[in-house]
Amino acid sequence: MRMKKVAGIVCGFAIIALGVFAFSRANSKKDITEKVFEVAEKQYGELLAHSTNLSRYPRTIDGSGKTSYVDIGDWTGGFWPGDLWYVYEYTGEDKWKQAAIKWTESLEQNQYNTAHHDLGFMMYCSYGNAYRLTKNEHYKAVLIQSAKSLISRYNERVGCIKSWNSKMSWDGKTLWSFPVIIDNMMNLELLFFASKVTGDPVYKNIAVKHAETTMKNHIRADYSSYHVVNYDTITGKVLNQQTCQGYADNSTWARGQAWGIYGFTMVYRETGDVRFLQTAKKMADFYMHQATLPADKVPYWDFNVNQAGYTPQWNNKQSPLNYIPRDASAAAIVSSALLELSNDLGTEGKSYADFAEQTIKSLSSPEYLAKPGDNGYFLLKHSVGSIPHGVEIDVPLVYADYYYLEALLRYHTKKKSL
Ligand code: GLY
After folding, report:
1. Where residue 389 sits, what CATH number does that domain have?
2. Which residue of 26, 51, 195, 284 has the fewest CB atoms within a 10 Å radius of its CB?
3. Is residue 1 part of a domain?
4. Backbone angles phi, psi at 398, to 5 degrees
5. Is 26 a domain residue?
6. Active site residues
7. Is 130 within 8 Å of 83 (Cβ atoms)?
8. Could you tell me the distance, in angstroms and rounded to a whole number, from the CA of residue 204 to the centre of ligand 1?
9. Does residue 19 register a pLDDT over 80?
10. What is the distance in A from the centroid of ligand 1 to the CA of 183?
């Protein structure tokens, strides 16, 4: 009787051990994209269940670790529907499509927003993906109107779209009356789209001119970048080259460099003009070969924090931090951009694709990828919104997730084609 019981227990253990072994083998066979999208389905399932107000868009977490939200005018509203579109694209499941449609359509009013330059982020990440994946003609019309609103901020004399309305610099000495930020390169994709679908070159011409002016005035001789360039609208001349979200006026803010790499790669795709390809490549070279880039390829929030020769104009003594935070959002943007750039560079592209792969692997490790149920139901931990403003320090950010998922989809496509 006793022997029978022991044999039964041993047998039970053996079955459990076999089950665990089979599960971990099946799991280890999953590729990185599959594993991350499984986490995305869990996290975003929860985020959808907790986000019932369609005028409040998930962006990050608050001090107590709970999801926090912004309203329709915020620059980040389009990333949440964009995240949902990417999950739909990967899974093909109708429930994600329905959720993506619902959140995309909640942004419709933004097509008339002319308050800032971020219409590209807001509308192309939401409606742009919606149109790409559904071909719904109404979405196309919304995108065209959004492009019209965006070009209303273009100044011919300057050759740029104005990013923000007037704003004071950190040193309190300058009122920027026509500030253009490197981030604005990202909003140009909407304009290229509008020219393609309308046949009207006005949008594309403005995008190309904006990119040329940015190439001239935002990019330094070593292919690092200024965050903000302020222009004189009478003469079109540069008045100031400074920072708003970086460490110092002459430093390189990691996400700004990331926007530039991604933006110029995209403008090369849309124009075939090798000047833009060279700019993207050299900006990427700068980023990839920085001495201060950690081994896991996830950068500190600015490449020059605490270095001699870089003096913040904001009050960095207020910072309660005893470490320099990383910015996973910059890493995500760069990995997505490099996967595209590597395709444009022929055999030379391999080192850029390898760098992207290493970054994706780091981001997909437990150090950066959240455990289901944690992190306000976002995917990536350890991003930075703006240290000079004292906000969103070492937290999840909805746009870090967006470019991470995009990078994974590009990575998946590239792997399949090998
Ligand atoms: N476009 C604003 C940011 O990157 O924080």
Report:
1. 1.50.10.10
2. 26
3. no
4. -60, -30
5. no
6. 118, 183
7. no
8. 23
9. no
10. 6
